[in-house]
Amino acid sequence: MPRPSRTRRAVDWSLRGQLVAWVLLPQLVLWVAGGVATYRLAVNYVNEAADATLSQAARTLARQVKPIGNGLLIDLPRAAQNILEADPNDRFLYTVSTPPGRFILGNNAIPLPPAHMRPRPNDPYFYDGEMPPDQTGTTPGPAKVRVAALFLKNGELDGRQQWMLVQVARGVAARESIWKRILVDTLLPLSALIMLMTVIVWAGTGAGLAPLLRLRREVEDRSPNDLTPLRADAAPRELRSLVRALNNLLAAVRQNVDAQKRFIADAAHQLRTPLAGVISHAELALGATSDPALVARLTMLHQSATRSAHLIARMLMLARTEPEAAMVQERSPVELGALVEQVVADAVPKALRGGADLGVGTQRDPAGLWVQANPMLLAEALVNILDNAIEYAGAGSEITVAVRRDGRHARISVSDNGPGIARADHARVFDRFVRATDQGLGCGLGLAIVHEIVTQHGGSVSLGDVDPHGLEVVVKLPLL
């Protein structure tokens, strides 16, 4: 099975879905871009604020360390230490070492500055590092910390400058929590705005496409017989060209149907009249001669003319039942019981001439069996079924017509006890010019006409066997 192309898959989308997708897609892109930008700005601002706090703490601690001769005076009150270590989940950790790396005061687990850092007095360095979890108590594994390192001059020894290192560290978990809160607090309103915008866009596209839906319903709700132009003034400007194209198509269909109707009428007049004259002259000639050879030839001429007239009548009726011609046939509510009784009554004389017993086998439905149909075409279908039954069931046969309700359909059955049709030919006999027997004057169009008429009325027709022998023709039509 070939894979559908991208163009075909795109066409399968609804127009409303495509409009909503194209409107919301840029918003989703902006939502993602806004989230990324918000995250980066939040990280930068939080880092700057945290680094400023670390820098201030390092300078404050450095002011408490004063060189005295060859030693240091560290004036760090206990109260100040308690402030630095007040929050057990986000403590300030500090270290004083001199020379750098030789622990004097504080927490000796704070990582040293990278080796490439060169001391610059009173200018703090900031770097990231890791500490054991028991030092911060915030994570089960090594804790990430942000460190501010401040180098201070500590006199000279043997002509060489001595340095003192003050380090203040703080865990990054708190600042990460702030980043996330800022990100969530920013994206939640944006998400709600996107959802609200989706609802507004969906409702707006529905309102914008309402004229197109009305145009679709106007076309869908039309009966096949309605070929009047569509209203172009009620359509939006973008759809008026489509409406004009549809109206042009409807006008062309009406012209074709009118031309076909004129052809059928002209053909019926031009063909039936000469054939009727031939049949009449043949009958007059048969009555005026007693020559056996001439009588045989005139009989053959009469039969040929009669067969031709029958064939032409059937072909004209078949043309009248074509979909294009059936579109302009007016339909109205028809009560099937009354129609069937009238058709059967009209066919009784022909049945008597053929030696068949024709009658209606069921009583009429008290509520009536109403269908939407063209009474002339429906009667023609029933006449064809009865003509076939009278002609092919033979003399002495019984033909029964029954009409009853079958769910949401009306069921018409015509059964006889004649020779019937082989089961293998049940489907074929509805094709044009297909006959199941060589007897009679049939041309193979009777059941084809029945099939066309019933199909045009939304029904179905089928054949069935009758025990011990015979044929049943069943027509089902939807009830009103």
Structure description:
The chain is an alpha+beta fold and 480 residues long. The chain folds into three domains: 14-218, no CATH class; 237-325; 330-478, Histidine kinase-like ATPase, C-terminal domain (Heat Shock Protein 90). The protein is built from eleven helices and 14 strands. It has a five-stranded antiparallel β-sheet with strand order 4-3-7-6-5. It has a five-stranded mixed β-sheet with strand order 9-11-12-14-13. Residues 4-11 have low confidence and may be disordered. Its EC number is 2.7.13.3. Residues 266-480 form the Histidine kinase domain. GO terms for molecular function: phosphorelay sensor kinase activity. This is histidine kinase.
Rounded to an integer in angstroms, the radius of gyration calculated over CA atoms is: 50 Å
**N-to-C order of helices and strands:** HHEEHEEEHEEHHHHEHEEHEEHEE
User: Looking across the biggest beta sheet, what order are the strands in?
Assistant: 4-3-7-6-5
For the sheet with most strands, the description reads: 5 strands, antiparallel
